[in-house]
TrEMBL record:
Transmembrane segments: 29-52, 64-86, 106-124, 144-168, 202-231, 243-265, 277-297
Membrane topology value: Multi-pass membrane protein
Protein name per its UniProtKB record: Olfactory receptor
One GO location term (cellular component): plasma membrane
MF (Gene Ontology): G protein-coupled receptor activity; olfactory receptor activity
Database matches in InterPro entries: GPCR_Rhodpsn, GPCR_Rhodpsn_7TM, Olfact_rcpt
Alphabetized UniProt keyword annotations: Cell membrane, G-protein coupled receptor, Membrane, Olfaction, Receptor, Sensory transduction, Transducer, Transmembrane, Transmembrane helix
Main location: membrane
Keyword flag Cell membrane: yes
Functional note: Putative odorant or sperm cell receptor.
Provenance organism: Pipistrellus kuhlii
Subcellular location, record wording: Cell membrane
G-protein coupled receptors family 1 profile domain span: 45-295
Keyword flag Kinase: no
Amino acid sequence: MFARSPVLNQSDPTEFVFRVFTAVPEFQALLFLLFLLLYLMILCGNTAIIWAVCTHSSLRTPMYFFLSNLSFIEISYTTVVVPLMLSNIFGARKPISLAGCGAQMFFFLTLGGADCFLLAIMAYDRYVAICHPLHYTLIMTQKLCLQMVGCAVALALYLSLQLTSLIFTLPFCGRLREINHFLCDVPPVLRLACADIHVHQAVLYVVSILVLIVPFILISVSYLFITLAILRIRSAEGRRRAFSTCSSHLTVVLLQYGFCALVYLRPQSSSSVDEDRQFALIYTFVTPLLNPLIYTLRNKDVKGALRSAIISKAASGSD
């Protein structure tokens, strides 16, 4: 497609530093504690979902299989970013090598892309469950579920490899460059290149359309059919339960796709660097945290599985 080998061994080694959030020590301590707390909540919440799905037989259905995979991706996604981000809040800024920056960008894009594709798969799962309930088990087989998750990860890997490889063929001016961000994301790194980047920006838009726009269209079409099917349900309680199940998924979808689109699909001339950093905080911290909160607090099955797992664990520990 447009793959080239990344030039990560330049004669004069290039390093990057991240721009600090604040130079005030009191605010640094506050931000550190806030981000650390959010990160621990993301780890605990998503791990609890994986644990519940793996240990409770009633949750071994396609919907919860996809949910547990989403939780695993969310944990990996934030772990690629947050520990390095926390280490740079206090004290002298720690440089990251060209290779290290490329590796972080690659894994961030891969996991972020897989996250977006998986949300589209979950929308299709809900479409089949609500619009074709009698054929659900025949359509959503274990083999198909594994294939869909595998394809989502493989496509995300391929696209992120192409984009990262292309970006790191660019020359970067100077030895130590400041990234106006808290991670090696594509737009802020492109701004540091001392070469023409029109082709690279075009490729970024193409990848963003494939990762964001195409899945969002598929989700929108799925939910259009879901809405029509729900409106045909005669029972008011049945309509309420169906809308409740879908609204939680839509909340995560709108936050994830909306803020990602603002960062990756806006023309660079009109985008504010500080705004990009604020938007990135939303899909780095808020959506991974909302995933376990929404699916546990609004889902009786998951709450029941967690409750029974905790009770059985406490009972076995007291023996």
